[in-house]
């Protein structure tokens, strides 16, 4: 669980403005990272905090930093360095939300946007969230004054180092006053991180939130051993079997992201590509499409996916395992966020086992083996989900008077067809077909007709009041109402039955 039961925000004696902001955002309890970090930061201590993505770390430094500010527009008091534009923008947005009642202005500084607008914004801001490259550029042009800085935060410091920002970070330090408070957040604490900490922090306190495992506890890890050839087809088998609501599929190269995306599209999936070749605008459009449910999958490289915040991703899929265990931890940290359960799935070919063993050994992640599903298993999984979906929808109809039908159901299920012509499986199947069509908005009479040939007598015996209710279905949840395949199915019931009998993947 992300938030803690034992602590509340009262523990930190926050200002009224901050409490109102937390209420407005909807944060009711602090996360573990926040409980660990907020009091230490408020006490003025330098901190190295190991925390995984999705732990609420942005607010863990955002809340105390804003609390400590006495904003003078145009005087930069707080600087956050982040590895990517996406993360910089997100952190900036979080600062603006947290500082909305204190009227603290934050600005994001990153490459690819107009200098003029950034200069204008700087004149009104107290907080700067920047990527190292563009910030050093502004420092060298003399367009930003960091001499009054009080607080520095290096966010996702391990990512910044792995992206080659070490020299830029060190160069930026020269523009900062020596007397300041510094924080370093990182998912993994390596020797390199410690060295960076020693250079930039003053007798820092080390806070390790989970020493045995940095992998999110809310993520279940599975892997499918594959041969390596025919991997795109294996991926489709996994997608057919799992039917993830939303996923990032990671590839190791840009070429692979394009190849996998077009393969998925050709097979009717709503997928798009996210890699460094795409302009910033395109990337933002793709992310928005995933958030709005217009697409289900993003096929991404690590660089493009760094720092993006999509909190209700149900799955992270490794089309290929990355070269390092740390990258695996980062990738899979994109699901299981904010207390939700997530699933990480990896296709592993024999030449990728090194990373696999590292992940197990270094991070104590329990990866569970699964074998690629057969067509029958895919069909069964789909049927099980279908049953759950219909049953859940029916259960939500609290007003349906079905008591009188209980006896009939018992006879059908317990005595079956004994002594009668009735085939219980077919009868239930027809009833389910009727229920599903009615749920989707078909009038009851049409639904019964569609389930013919011999619609069972029970449905025609349904009392009038019941028929009326069934004819006016409630607006169902978006996904339940029209998942991609379902729409097709509803439009062409014949084809659907075919698909259920023989999933496509084996073609
Ligand atoms: P982060 O680790 O900063 O990327 O945060 C991960 C997600 O947790 C974000 O969507 C935040 O909005 C959310 N979050 C942060 N703090 C809390 C909190 N105290 N309660 C609930 N959600 C939170």
TrEMBL record:
<dbReference type="InterPro" id="IPR027417">
    <property type="entry name" value="P-loop_NTPase"/>
</dbReference>
<dbReference type="GO" id="GO:0016787">
    <property type="term" value="F:hydrolase activity"/>
</dbReference>
<feature type="short sequence motif" description="Q motif">
    <location>
        <begin position="7"/>
        <end position="35"/>
    </location>
</feature>
<feature type="compositionally biased region" description="Basic and acidic residues">
    <location>
        <begin position="463"/>
        <end position="507"/>
    </location>
</feature>
<keyword id="KW-0378">Hydrolase</keyword>
<dbReference type="GO" id="GO:0005524">
    <property type="term" value="F:ATP binding"/>
</dbReference>
<feature type="domain" description="Helicase C-terminal">
    <location>
        <begin position="234"/>
        <end position="380"/>
    </location>
</feature>
<dbReference type="InterPro" id="IPR014001">
    <property type="entry name" value="Helicase_ATP-bd"/>
</dbReference>
<feature type="compositionally biased region" description="Low complexity">
    <location>
        <begin position="452"/>
        <end position="462"/>
    </location>
</feature>
<protein>
    <recommendedName>
        <fullName>RNA helicase</fullName>
        <ecNumber>3.6.4.13</ecNumber>
    </recommendedName>
</protein>
<keyword id="KW-0547">Nucleotide-binding</keyword>
<feature type="domain" description="DEAD-box RNA helicase Q">
    <location>
        <begin position="7"/>
        <end position="35"/>
    </location>
</feature>
<dbReference type="GO" id="GO:0003723">
    <property type="term" value="F:RNA binding"/>
</dbReference>
<keyword id="KW-0067">ATP-binding</keyword>
<dbReference type="InterPro" id="IPR001650">
    <property type="entry name" value="Helicase_C-like"/>
</dbReference>
<dbReference type="Pfam" id="PF00271">
    <property type="entry name" value="Helicase_C"/>
</dbReference>
<dbReference type="InterPro" id="IPR050547">
    <property type="entry name" value="DEAD_box_RNA_helicases"/>
</dbReference>
<dbReference type="Pfam" id="PF00270">
    <property type="entry name" value="DEAD"/>
</dbReference>
<feature type="domain" description="Helicase ATP-binding">
    <location>
        <begin position="38"/>
        <end position="207"/>
    </location>
</feature>
<feature type="region of interest" description="Disordered">
    <location>
        <begin position="452"/>
        <end position="507"/>
    </location>
</feature>
<dbReference type="GO" id="GO:0003724">
    <property type="term" value="F:RNA helicase activity"/>
</dbReference>
<dbReference type="InterPro" id="IPR014014">
    <property type="entry name" value="RNA_helicase_DEAD_Q_motif"/>
</dbReference>
<keyword id="KW-0347">Helicase</keyword>
<dbReference type="InterPro" id="IPR044742">
    <property type="entry name" value="DEAD/DEAH_RhlB"/>
</dbReference>
<dbReference type="InterPro" id="IPR011545">
    <property type="entry name" value="DEAD/DEAH_box_helicase_dom"/>
</dbReference>
